[in-house]
Automatic annotation (TrEMBL):
Keyword Transmembrane helix: yes
Keywords: Membrane, Transmembrane, Transmembrane helix
Protein name: Amino acid transporter
Transmembrane segments: 70-99, 120-144, 164-185, 192-218, 238-259, 290-313, 347-368, 388-405, 411-433, 440-461, 467-484
Organism field: Microbacterium terregens
């Protein structure tokens, strides 16, 4: 077989400052399939132990300790510890089993979205993925802005902070977002090493704060008695408390963040020597350890921090404007360990919250190039890191300004994005178990999926601002995708074209005579009459000499919603006629790609012969956009014109 890559590269531009800026921006535009695992990576290079990679996801997951206890107290009040226990149970017995299965079935880091990608056929599947990407974008973008805003809150509330920090939360948050963008614009190669240090220091400091707080509770047992008495006064009975906790815990959904990121970074995990591309057992086991260890560590911190913050901090301090709002553990650090230790804690929290934005940015840079350019729903430059960083930074600026860098105001949108992704993952593994006829797993995952559906719905009802923001992201992605798909209609879409031996022999035989004539034929019944009548008609109306050899070319339509394709051209003889056949989602673009490849393969510029398409030109163009057929001849010519600016080297199109 003969294969050639048609990978598209950025066009050359004149030398100078503009050219240098363009080359710098498009550095990293290296993978035509959008499969790179994060910033500036052609392939995954050095891999790491699972616990090191856990720290990379942990800057997102563990950093929520900076604000989760305060948000839980604000949402559930004195019931915060009980609601947190419900959340932990859902984490350990719901989200964890779901994502361990996702890790087994998408070890390349594509996650649950890829598992659902082909759940629906044709355009419905693409729209479904775009909607999920909208929620993912909500999750990751709000992670960036919310984490930066909470880092700002820790800085502003520090007793040693300059006076001008007060009232400048938006400016400080924008500075942190800008700093994050600069890191990615320069390169992001040492992320795991930085993450290990940040996570180790942050967890160690939190452990100290919680142990000191527990000791203080032990010395003052009245705080437990007073808390329990207040609970009974408010709620009446333990059963009522449990019921209310079950209703309230969806507000604490921020504590579930990080699972999707944990799967996305799987290619960074070092596997066993026996691992293969199809069966990376060691990597999958490492991912399982990563997810389980992270969930256990976080669950322990969530429960303990919820208890000590609820018992030791007055409820009014959690309210907007209170000293513990968005920073409950930092409040305890300053209260019981002094401002010196508290400042060290604040610096650690600021760093990990800022770097949590880096984890989210890496997630976005992994997701967008994986899907949108491949669907034709983003420009080619969307495969490069730096332009995307600038786009995401601009969006983060807008979100920060709109929400006035308020952590509480962004919590609903964050929780909505997290919950929808986890719900989609639970649905994906349920369908996977059903497809494999695993009855017990199907029932178990089905129950988990229903619980997450309930949690998501309750969160949306209680905090409708979250779904409104997510809807804005979804609509934005859908509109941009539609515009991009239409704008890229006349591109060469094939990434590779491969001829089998017979097909290659056909074109090389004709190339020896210095002339290759390709007749486009719409496959019908495959009868001898079909080919003989087509041959006679083309020779008569297109004036092809009777002694000139022709090759029929047939495109068999597939899923027209696909954009990029790897084409396999097969040669067959039918009733004495030579025929090239290829399966493709789009007819005109495929014909153009094959004609260019024949030219490059043989050095002979081929001529292609078409019949005019019957019907209204407008309806034919719409048919082309959505079905991939329609007005074939003019569109093929236009694709060739855009792909080959030199008319003398362009395959010729004859229409009769």
């Amino acid at each position: 077989m003969s294969e050639s890559s048609l990978e598209r590269v950025p066009p050359e531009v004149p030398s100078g400052g503009v050219a240098r800026a363009r080359r710098w921006l498009l550095e990293g535009l290296v993978d035509s399939q959008g499969r790179h695992q994060g910033p500036h990576a052609r392939t995954t290079g050095r891999t790491h132990s699972w616990w090191q990679v856990m720290c990379l996801t942990g800057v997102d997951y563990f950093s929520t300790l900076g604000y989760q206890p305060a948000i839980a107290a604000l949402a559930a009040g004195l019931l915060s510890p009980l609601a947190t226990i419900v959340l932990v149970l859902l984490t350990l017995f719901g989200a964890l089993p779901v994502y361990r299965r996702v890790a087994r079935e998408s070890s390349d880091g594509s996650g649950s979205i890829a598992m659902l990608e082909h759940l629906l056929p044709w355009w419905a599947g693409k729209v479904f993925v775009l909607v999920l990407l909208g929620f993912a974008a909500t999750d990751f973008m709000i992670t960036i802005t919310l984490s930066a805003a909470d880092a700002t809150a820790h800085a502003v509330e520090n007793p040693f902070a300059p006076e001008w920090f007060q009232g400048n939360q938006v400016g400080i948050t924008l500075f942190l977002v800008t700093l994050l963008a600069l890191v990615f614009l320069k390169g992001f190669r040492e992320a795991i090493g930085i993450a290990v240090v940040l996570v180790a220091v942050f967890l160690a400091l939190n452990l100290v704060v919680i142990l000191v707080s527990v000791a203080h509770v032990a010395e003052n047992p009245l705080v437990v008695t007073d808390w329990w008495a207040a609970l009974n006064v408010q709620n009446g009975s333990p059963w009522l408390m449990i019921g209310i906790a079950l209703l309230v815990f969806p507000k604490l959904a921020l504590g579930l963040s990080g699972f999707e990121t944990g799967v996305a970074v799987m290619p960074q995990i070092k596997g066993d020597q026996t691992d293969t591309a199809d069966k990376p057992t060691g990597r999958i086991m490492g991912a399982g350890r990563l997810l389980t260890t992270a969930a256990i560590i976080m669950s322990t911190f969530l429960i303990s921090s919820s208890f000590v913050t609820t018992l030791l901090i007055p409820q009014e301090e959690f309210q907007p404007g209170g000293s513990a709002n968005g920073r409950a553990l930092a409040y305890l650090a300053h209260e019981y360990l002094g401002n010196g230790f508290g400042t060290v804690y604040d610096i650690s929290t600021i760093c990990i919250l800022w770097f949590a934005g880096a984890s989210a940015m890496a997630g976005l840079l992994n997701l967008v190039p994986r899907y949108l350019p491949r669907y034709g729903m983003a420009p080619q430059w969307a495969r490069a890191v730096r332009p995307l960083v600038l786009v995401f930074t601009a969006i983060a600026f807008l979100i920060t300004i709109v929400f006035d860098a308020d952590v509480d105001a962004q919590g609903g949108a964050y929780a909505t994005g997290v919950l929808v992704l986890i719900t989609s993952a639970s649905v994906a593994v349920t369908l996977s178990a059903r497809r494999r006829m695993q009855r017990a797993a199907t029932v178990g995952f089905g129950v988990v999926a229903l619980v997450f559906v309930y949690t998501t719905v309750v969160n949306i009802i209680q905090r409708p601002d979250g779904i409104r923001i997510a809807t804005m992201f979804i609509v934005g992605i859908l509109v941009i995708s539609a515009v991009s798909r239409i704008g890229r209609s006349f591109e060469i879409r094939a990434t590779t074209v491969t001829f089998d031996r017979t097909a290659l022999a056909f074109i090389e035989d004709d190339a020896e005579s210095g002339e290759i004539r390709i007749v486009a034929n719409e496959p019908d019944d495959g009868s001898p009459e079909e080919y003989s009548s087509k041959d006679a008609a083309e020779r008569r109306y297109s004036h092809i000499p009777i002694d000139s050899r022709i090759i029929f070319l047939e495109v068999h339509p597939t899923d027209s919603s696909e954009f990029e394709e790897e084409l396999l051209v097969e040669g067959v003889e039918k009733h004495g006629y030579r025929v090239l056949t290829v399966n493709s989602a789009n007819i005109p673009n495929t014909l153009a790609a094959l004609l260019l490849q024949i030219r490059d393969q043989t050095g002979v510029i081929p001529g292609a012969y078409f019949e005019w398409t019957e019907g209204n030109p407008v309806s034919n163009m719409l048919k082309y956009l959505f079905v991939g057929s329609g007005e074939v001849a003019p569109v093929t010519r236009e694709v060739l014109r855009e792909a080959e600016p030199d008319a003398k080297r362009r395959p010729t199109i004859h229409v009769s």
